[in-house]
Description:
alpha/beta, about 400 residues
Amino acid sequence: MSEVARKHIQFMQEALVLAEEAxxxxxxxxxxxxxxxxxxxxxxxxxxxxxxxxTRHAEVVAIEQAVRTIGEKFLDECTLYVTLxxxxxxxxxxxxxxxPTVVYGAADPKTGACRSVFELLDDxxxxxxxxxRTGICEDECAAVLRDFFARQRERDDVQSEQPAPAxxxxxxxxxxxxxxxxxxxxxLRSVKTLxxxxxxxxxxxxxxxxxxxxxxxxxxTLLSYHEHNERERASEIAYRVSQGQRVALVSDAGMPxxxxxGYRAVQACIEAxxxxxxxxxxxxxxTAIAASGLPTDVFCFVGFPPQKKGRAQFLQTHLAYHGTxxxxxxxxxxxxxxxxxxxxxxxxxxxxVARELSKLHEEYxxxxxxxxxxxxxxxxGVKGEIVVMVSQATQGAE
Length: 398
C-alpha cells in the first residue's frame, strides 16, 4: 500500500469516529476532517438535529473550523475527507472555500453532488483544478449509515407496537403569529410566549432569528419546519410536546398553518392528545379583507391558486361562490390572475388588490377586473406580498 493510500485511510478513519459520535447523538452519521499537510485543521459532524439547523452538515462545520484555525477564508492547500459523498449545498461550500482535493467514502446516489464539485472546481474561469477520490473506506462508511438507519427503523417499530403513553400535562404547542411586515405588530403575549418556550419551530431560522433578537428572546433550540420536512418534523413536534416541552410554532409572517406550514404539526399533537393553543395576532387575510370595502359577512379563503394543472377548474369553482373570495398570489403572477378572474368571473367583477400590508408602501388597488388589469399593465406590475379579493358572484352565476 502506498503512503498516499495509507494517509487517505488514516484520515477517513478520523472522519468515521466523528460520524459514529454524530449517530449516537441522534444525527445522521456523517463525519468530515480537513487536512493541510499532515495536520487536521478542521473537524465536523452533522449537527442538523442537535442544532435545529438544516445547514449544519459535517462539511460546513469542518470548513468553518478550518477557516478559524488557519485564519484564511480559502483552503486551497487542504484536502477534505468526508464519509458520505457531499450534497449540492456542501458542494457549494467546498467550491467557495477553494478546496482542491475531496475524498469521500460511501457514495450517495440520491443527493450526492461530487460530479458537480468536480465540474465547478474544474471550470477554467476558476483558474483552479480539483481532484475527487472515491471509495476510501467505502464499506465502513456505508456500514455506519446502514446500522444507524436500521436502529432507527427498529426503534420506530417498537414505538408503533407499544401503546402511546399519556402526554405530559405541561406540554403545549403554541401557534404564535408574527408580523406580516411591520415588526411592531408583535403582541405582548406573543413575545412572552416565545421567551417561555423550550423550543421554537420556524419556517426559516435565518428569517426568525432577527425577530427573536429584536424582542430579546433568549437563545434556545430552533427547529426548521417547512414544506420539505413537514411530515417528518410534525411527529417530532408531537413527541416533544408529549414529553412536556413547550413548543412555539411560528411562520415567516402571519399565522402558522394559514397558507404556511403548521397543519400537520397541529394534527399530530391533537392525535397524540396534546394541548394546542393558538394566539391571536397578525394575519394578511383578515387585515386585507377588513379594509377592502367588499362585504365581510360571508367570505371564503382559498390560498394560492394552482399555477397550471387544475387552475381553470379552481377559479371557475371559487368564483361561483356567493360571498367575497380571498386568495394570495405572487406579484409576478398577479396580472395573469386578474386576467383569469376577468375570463372566468367577468370583467365587471369587483376586485381589490392589497399589497405591502402594514409596511410603508401599503396600498389597495380597487376596481373591476378589467380596470385593475389596465392599471397593473400601465404600472408595469407591482411588488410585495399580495392579497386578492373578489366580490361575490351575482345571483344565477355558475
